[in-house]
Amino acid sequence: MEDEVMQFQTIILMLMRIERVNVEIILEWLERYSNIFRAPITKCVNNYEAGAWEALEAMKDEVSFMPLIRIVESLQAAVEKIPITDAFDELDSERDYYQEKRKESNERLIKRKGMIGKGIGFAPMVCMFVGYLIVPLVFIGLTSMSNSFTTMSNIS
Fold first, then answer.
1. How far apart are CA 91 and CA 75, in angstroms?
2. What SS3 state is found at 34?
3. Which residues in 84-102 are b (16+ Cβ under 10 Å) and which e?
4. E strand or H helix at 70
5. 19, 92, 104, 106: which sits with the fewest CB atoms below 10 Å from its CB?
6. Assigned domain for 156 exists
7. DSSP assignment, residue 35?
8. Helices 66-79 and 2-15, interaxial angle, to 10°?
9. Cα–Cα distance measured from residue 50 to residue 131, given in angstroms and rounded to the nearest whole number
């Protein structure tokens, strides 16, 4: 859901720079590229002619994901004859925050997978060390101890 909202924000950032873009055009573009939120956006586009504010309000009630609700509220502000660029003025900062959050998440994932990779890379050396040095030494030690006990028991 987060990725799809990020995609919506990117689409809106591109479309809001075009002069004749309105809320209906933005909704149509969002509908084209949506997967998770396709049903509510399609319903909103279909009901848009009956009343833009009401259609967006119904979409806002239907969706529970907060970043998408903020986008819908900005679309509602743009319906009220506020320019689209003013309605989405905070979108750049939200997008930057999401990118930083995603970057940090990716770094943690890479670090965790690196630790797993180091463990997997180190395992053959440990197996070789245990298999070629420790096991034969323990085996030799046990056999010599067993031989010593048998000699001691034969002496008595």
1. 12
2. coil
3. beebbeebeebeeebeeee
4. helix 66-79
5. 19
6. no
7. S
8. 20
9. 77
Total domains in the chain come to 1
Residue span of the structural domain in which 32 resides: 2-89
Tokens matching residue 69? 């609700």
Collapse the DSSP code of 37 into the 3-class scheme (helix H, G, I; strand E, B; otherwise coil) and give the result: coil
Is 71 a domain residue?
A: yes
Q: Is the pTM of this model over 0.70?
A: no
Tell me the pLDDT tens digit for each residue of 32-83: 999 898 999 999 999 888 888 899 999 999 998 888 898 888 888 888 878 8
Residue 58 burial (CB < 10 Å; 0-12/13-18/19+)? middle
Which tokens in the block code for residue 103? 């970057």
